Amino acid sequence: MHFNRKPPVTGGEYVYCKIGEALSSEYDVDEISINMIILRYFKKKGLARAFARYLLEPMSILYPLLMRKKYDLIFTSWSDHVPFFGDVVYAQPLAGKFSIDKTAFCINDHGNLLANAAEYLGTGLTWPWRRLFGKFSLKYHYFISNSRSTADYVFRVYRKRSWVIYPPTELEPFVYAPLNKERMVLSVGNVVPQKRFDLIGKIGTRMPDVKFILIGKAEGVGENIVKSIKEAFEKQGLANNFAFLGYVSEHDKAERLKKASVIFHPAVNEPFGIALVEGMASGAVPVAHNSGGPSEFIDSKWLFSNDEEMVEKIRQALAADIRTRQAIREKSLAFNETQFKRNLLQVCSKIMSSKGP
Predict the structure, then answer these.
(1) Are 267 and 244 in contact (CB under 8 A)?
(2) 314, 287 contact by CB (below 8 A)
(3) Who's near 337: CB < 8 A, 6+ residues apart?
(4) How far apart are CA 52 and CA 42, in angstroms?
(5) Which terminus in the chain has less CB density within 10 A, N or C?
(6) CATH top-level class for 178-332?
(7) Are 137 and 84 in contact (CB under 8 A)?
(8) Strand, coil or helix: 295
(9) How far is CA 322 from CA 178, 252, 299, 326, in A?
(10) Nearest to residue 145, comparing CAs of 296, 36, 10, 285?
(11) Whole-angstrom Cα distance, residue 58 to residue 182?
């Protein structure tokens, strides 16, 4: 297992925590996280952390290979960048990663080249062994994908078929309170270019009677994105129409969702979108790009393909009636933790059976 348990936890990290809980309910589980070891002793980004990363990661990659006979199943994260050896992977690619052609939507932060020099250098120096080891380890991997879109991506890139198990969502804290709804549009997620939250500044100023709120961690380029959104609202004399709350507790997020009429997620090719399901559980209408995982569980009425559609869909969502919001909430209940854990254990049992004694 390779994931982060230290708050703030991303949606993908939350899923890996639930995978750990599911496996622990039926098996003895040993957890290993090289990232947590590195973050514990190298708290700041820089040359020291980069050096430790490229020294320790190869060791952690080889450890499961050396210990494979000790375990019935090695469940791990896996990517082109860090292709850990294992038996099964829960695939959660980054937003914008589904296409493998030159027109794929993907923005990389190359902002401060000096600060990131060690990262770029290390990536280049370790590319050969990562490439070779990746090809080797793929022979032994089974894939579980977090959506059909991810499964298609995994097959196109790695030529590996996979089971599809949608991620779980902790639905209990998200109360359905339709009479509390305000003209509020809420967005939740790490503020990175791939999430396209900068569009809030572009379309939010066209709706002067609507409040836009953004929740999530913003570092480096994320801070610049938040700044650009604020400036866009200020230029139109609408400074009070936008609020960035940063990372908030689950309770505070649930309280905001209770009042939000719309949960807005503009990322292209989002693999799934747990925040969208959380919003749906609170009766907020999900407005998302017509691509990736969201297109598999959100009604096409609320999906957009361009900026003009985006504005129109948000306006329609703000006016949605109670019956519509209730139906949206009912749909979100399918993504519960109990069902996720049951499906995961069934697949793991099949994989262990296929491996033989």
Answers:
(1) no
(2) yes
(3) 18, 168, 169, 170
(4) 8
(5) C
(6) alpha beta
(7) yes
(8) helix
(9) 6, 23, 16, 6
(10) 296
(11) 51
HSE at residue 57, side-chain half, CA atoms within 13 A, is 22
| Domain range annotation of the chain | 11-168+337-355, 178-332
The token duo for 334 is 């399918």
- State both tokens at 152: 């298609």
Q: What is the pTM of this model?
A: 0.84
Query: Tokens 């947590």, residue?
Result: 36
Token pair for residue 215?
């929740």
Distances (CA, A) of 32 to 18, 75, 81, 84, 142: 15, 10, 18, 11, 19
Per DSSP bridges, beta strands 184-188 and 262-265 are parallel
- To which residue do tokens 């000790």 refer? 70
Q: What is the pLDDT along the chain (357 residues), one digit of tens a residue?
A: 555 566 556 777 888 889 989 999 999 988 877 777 777 787 777 777 777 777 777 777 777 788 888 889 988 877 767 777 888 999 988 876 554 333 333 334 444 555 566 666 666 677 777 778 788 888 888 999 999 999 999 999 889 999 999 999 888 888 888 888 999 999 999 999 999 999 999 999 999 999 999 999 998 889 999 999 999 999 999 999 999 999 998 899 999 999 999 999 999 999 999 999 999 999 999 999 999 999 999 999 999 998 889 999 999 999 999 999 999 999 999 999 999 999 999 999 999 888 754
| All residues at 6 or more sequence positions from 110 whose CB lies less than 8 Å from its CB, including other chains | 116
Tokens 């949206």 correspond to what residue? 328
